[in-house]
Amino acid sequence: KKRNMMDYGGNDGSGAGGYGSPSPSTPGGSSRTRKGYDEQNLVPVTIRMVLNAEMPSCILADGREPHQVKLVAAVRESTPGSTNIMYTVEDGTGKIDVKEWVDSDSDNTAIVKLRERAQNDSTYVRIIGKITEYEGRKEIIGYSVRPVSSGNELTHHFLEVVHSAEKFKSGNQIVGAPTNYGAGMNTSGMGFGGNGIQPQSVTPVKQHGMTENSGNDIKKALFDYFSNNSAPSDVGTPLLPFIQQTSATYTESQIRQAVTDMSSEGMLYSTIDENYYNLV
Predict the structure, then answer these.
(1) Which residues are CB-neighbours of 36 under 8 A, at least 6 positions away?
(2) Is the pTM of this model over 0.85?
(3) What whole-number distance in Å separates Cα of residue 265 and Cα of residue 160?
(4) CA-wise closest residue to 164 among 70, 257, 278
(5) Quick one: how far is CA 244 from the chain centroid?
């Protein structure tokens, strides 16, 4: 299948890279020390940000050190193998290869169907993974490669990229730590053209009857629930049982708002749909 070559200045688009590359935890791979729990963050990124990352320390241009990254991109080519699937994806800021390891013996039907959909050319997918480098070319080891539910997910992702970068800059702390929304975002390092966005100051809107403390209580309860009921597969832990168990204390809208906040803060991510999640 012929590749649709695109040159973004940081990747010449010549061929696929990373085939057979060693995992960071295997002999021949990286010897990086495992990060502490508080450093195991999930950072939304563009492909340009990945291509500009400093390796092997994996530091983004703005100084963040992502443990895992999340991106949304279109599949330009996929090559299935016996143990992995290689994707070439692009998001308008660059193009990169993604390797997803597979286990056909243990994967259930739902996972297999999602994976088949993700392999269709021009399909937009949400990728959770880790930045690696093989033979001088950056690639992503994809822990989760799933089709997006709608076009809104692409728009939301790019807004999340800008928000998390500005949040880090204004708070000078890791992504996920609480801080205030601010104005004057500059997106020059994210691959959006470098002109910057200057929105009006935004005040967070809270759910009716939901105070800051009650919001933290829900997040703690959700964190404990997902920790104690972690799923052994990529399907994730269902959210609906928690909603039913806590219906006397929290409304469903409050719970889903807390889940959205935790996803934005890099604490968890959705798997097959908005009712199944895994902790990062």
Answers:
(1) none
(2) no
(3) 10
(4) 70
(5) 28
